[in-house]
Design a protein that fits this description.
Chain B: It is a multi-pass membrane protein. The complex is a heterodimer. Chain A is 32% helix and 26% strand. By secondary structure, chain A is an alpha/beta fold. By secondary structure, chain B is α+β, with helices and mostly antiparallel strands. Classes of the chains: A alpha/beta, B alpha+beta.
């Protein structure tokens, strides 16, 4: 993979909120099949970088290329198609409480114009991948934290994204569930999806032994191929 | 696929609708008021127009001549008035005809009729002008006031009729203006209410909207349910206003002549029947414009993609 062009290329990206500079000319490349862990203290700019990657916000300066395309120049009608290529998982799961596991995952396909037939085909597969086949009729309130996060991962995977972003996915979970989630993320990565994981979980970082990028005060302070969580 | 998309969007819209039922009822209530105001204004406007038209058709101007007026002068006046195209008819009434008309009147006592006879006929000769339009009245007035005619003219029904028609015109204009102002007011209030109702629905659904955004929901799904919701408000408001108008007319006519509205109602009922489809189309347009239009404004402002 040495010399290969990165799929995600963040070039001198800055983000400013009024006078507050949150990201300061960050440059980062992520290649096909990589698993990148983003660490750093709260307020370092990890979540802002993620918001820029999913185009919830636009950078103040610099450019972000995904598969060679400058995503800050996407037209509004192109955004949904872009987002279907980027799965996202949050700490607070963001599930619809009045829908079952199956319906929560199906919802992502329904609102993306997928046919009923395709929905029926895809969902069992994705639920199996996260080990939730048996729980497909349960409502979110009947699930444990780990199970909820697995539903959220299933929903993120259902479009077969090139990139899966997980923002503090284990923040609300016990260590056992956190390990389950990290195993699932590794499995997804093994199947070819780029995983970008932002986390505070030291144990998770040390266990995964993947590329670790540390952000501090809006700058990348270290980028290690097989990093460990370093307390500074 | 289009069918599936609509089925899904309708499902979401119905869920929104039932989840915020009190808000939905308020929006429908206000929109019903708006549609009712527009409809009543239309019906009243049609009715007074028709009443005015009937009145104008009935009103003729009669110009009576003094006995010293020559036949040639009367003929000259008739010719001058005939230059106007819009006069339906100008009829010369000779003394004999005037007498015949007088004798045939039923509301005149026989003793009085007996006084007037062919030998001693005081009835004047006249020109009966059937005016088409109120604006023609002033032309007639201008002609008969000319110096060559004025000394020979005994009387004309011009002034009395002018006053009557002016009154009718004033009422018609007032109803139109008042109705228009009231309609615009209610339409604007409804737009605001629906705008805010949809805005609240969007806020209530902010969690779902965020998920929609993240999973790459199409623009159609982010917007269509709200537009459908607005359309549903308009649709229900249309049904309610039609029902209210229909029931009101039926109820009021069943009371017969005891109400002061009865004479107006006898006019409105056939007009309602005659203009039913036009009214329905206008109601549908008003309902859709308020419902869908206000939702659209709300979506544009509050739905972030």
């Amino acid at each position: 993979m040495i010399g290969e062009k990165p799929i995600i290329e963040i070039r001198k990206v800055s983000k400013k909120y009024s006078r507050n500079l949150v990201l300061d000319e960050i440059t980062l490349g992520i290649k096909r099949g990589e698993f990148v862990i983003l660490i750093g203290p709260s307020g370092a700019g990890k979540s802002t970088l993620i918001r820029l990657l999913i185009q919830e916000e636009k950078p103040t300066g610099g450019k972000i290329f995904v598969s060679g395309r400058d995503i800050s120049r996407l037209k509004p009608y192109e955004l949904p198609y872009y987002r279907r290529n980027v799965g996202i998982v949050f700490q607070d799961f963001k599930l619809l409480p009045n829908k079952t596991v199956y319906e929560n995952v199906a919802y992502a396909l329904e609102v993306s114009d997928e046919s009923d037939e395709n929905i029926r085909k895809k969902i069992p597969k994705v639920l199996e991948a996260v080990g939730l086949t048996e729980r497909s009729d349960a409502y979110p309130e009947e699930l444990s934290g780990g199970e909820k996060q697995r539903v959220s991962i299933a929903r993120a995977l259902v479009h077969n994204p090139k990139l899966l972003i997980a923002d503090e996915p284990t923040g609300n979970l016990d260590p056992e569930s956190a390990r389950e989630i990290s195993d699932i993320l590794e499995k997804i990565n093994c199947q070819g999806t780029i995983v970008l994981l932002a986390t505070h979980n030291k144990e998770l970082v040390d266990r995964l032994r993947k590329r670790v990028v540390t952000i501090k005060k809006g700058k990348i302070v270290s980028d290690m191929a097989q990093g460990r969580y370093v307390c500074r | 696929m289009i069918f599936t998309r609509f089925k899904r969007a309708i499902k979401i819209a119905l869920a929104n609708f039932s989840r915020n039922s009190m808000l939905a009822i308020t929006a429908i209530f206000i929109m019903t008021l708006a549609i009712l105001t527009v409809s009543i204004f239309m019906l009243l406007s049609f009715s007074t127009n028709e009443a005015a038209q009937k009145l104008k058709d009935k009103i003729d101007i009669t110009v009576n001549f003094k006995d010293e007026a020559s036949e040639a002068l009367i003929q000259q006046l008739k010719n001058e008035l005939s230059t106007r195209e819009n006069f339906k008819s100008i009829h010369y009434i000779s003394k004999e005809e005037a007498l015949k008309n007088f004798q045939s009147r039923v509301n005149v006592k026989k003793e009085i009729k007996d006084i007037v006879n062919p030998a001693d006929n005081p009835l004047p000769r006249g020109l009966q002008i059937g005016a088409v339009d109120f604006s023609q009245f002033d032309f007639v007035s201008a002609v008969i006031k000319k110096p060559q005619y004025a000394p020979y003219i005994d009387s004309s029904s011009y002034e009395d009729n002018k006053q009557l028609i002016q009154n009718v015109n004033t009422i018609t204009k007032f109803i139109k203006k008042f109705g228009l102002v009231l309609s615009i007011m209610f339409v604007l209030i409804s737009v605001l209410v629906v705008y805010n109702t949809v805005r609240l629905t969007i806020i209530f659904r902010s969690n779902e909207m965020e998920i929609m955004r993240l999973v790459g929901a199409s623009t159609f799904f982010a917007r269509a349910p709200f537009l459908l919701e607005g359309f549903m408000y308009g649709f229900f408001a249309l049904i309610f206003s039609q029902l209210i108008i229909f029931i009101s007319i039926k109820l009021l006519t069943s009371f017969g002549s005891v109400t002061i509205f009865s004479s107006l109602l006898t006019l409105i009922e056939p007009i309602y029947a005659k203009n039913f489809w036009l009214l329905l189309v206008v109601q549908l347009i008003v309902g859709t414009v308020i419902g869908v239009g206000s939702s659209w404004l709300s979506i544009r402002k509050f739905v972030k993609l």
